[in-house]
Amino acid sequence: MAALGEQSEEQAMAAQPKPQNRRPISNIVIVVAMQTEALPIVNRFQLTEDPHSPFPRGVPWVRYQGTYKDLNISLVWPGKDPTLGVDSVGTISSALVTYAAIQALQPDLIINAGTAGGFKAKGASIGDVFIVSDCAFHDRRIPIPVFDLYGVGVRKTFEAPNLVKELNLKVGKLSTGDSLDMTQQDESSIIANDATVKDMEGAAIVYVSDLLKVPAMFVKAVTDIIDGDKPTAEEFLQNLAAVTAALDLAVEQVINFINGKCVSEL
Ligand code: ADE
């Protein structure tokens, strides 16, 4: 057994980058919830819709694909709700499409790119882009010991410290729930989660990536200020188009940084 303060052989092995993390990243899946967020990224990397979808027949999920520099890039979007015709936002669709994309495409890295609400009290402004360090849920309340922690479901993301430093991006914690608005109970949980940004997908995506052991990064651009005085839905819709342009630029910077590097170098 290792003496106190020394590493055991297993600990030393665990600290080594895994073999797949020691070769350059070649295969990336970008998960995006809304078409308005997805299309600028699709156009930027000249991705095209996969005519042989890897997803089950009949689901609305869409895969765009292409090569950019040394990378195979897929962007997956859960598509429009078949009945209502709006984007399939939220935790269920994003978890399902992430699971299916990992199974079918075996990516080296997942990137969830999207918009988020931001807290000005935590330093967020409209148009800011954050890399997320931790995700948790704010609307899964189970007041029974240990189930309470399961409900909150805090998880670390793959934070990419070299990327954050090089691109000079802001870092913050993300809180996820299935509502655009925020009840008082949600607000207390978001504060307890120490969140700077709030979305409707992140914690569900990191849950899946954690289960399947694929590193996941989160790039979130702020469309609305949650602790401001404007109604959230109005502010979100007003800023959506302009902020997706900032998101698209940030994703391009992130992809350029990743190109040619191993996961362990990010
Ligand atoms: N996406 C953009 N703004 C949001 C908000 N305020 N809450 C949840 N998801 C969002």
From TrEMBL:
Residues 28-255 form the Nucleoside phosphorylase domain. Coiled coil: none annotated. It comes from the Eukaryota. CDD domains: MTAN. InterPro entries: MTAN, Nucleoside_phosphorylase_d, Nucleoside_phosphorylase_sf. Residues 1-20 are annotated as: Disordered. It comes from Glycine max. GO terms for biological process: L-methionine salvage from methylthioadenosine; nucleoside metabolic process. This is Nucleoside phosphorylase domain-containing protein. The lineage of its organism: Eukaryota, Viridiplantae, Streptophyta, Embryophyta, Tracheophyta.
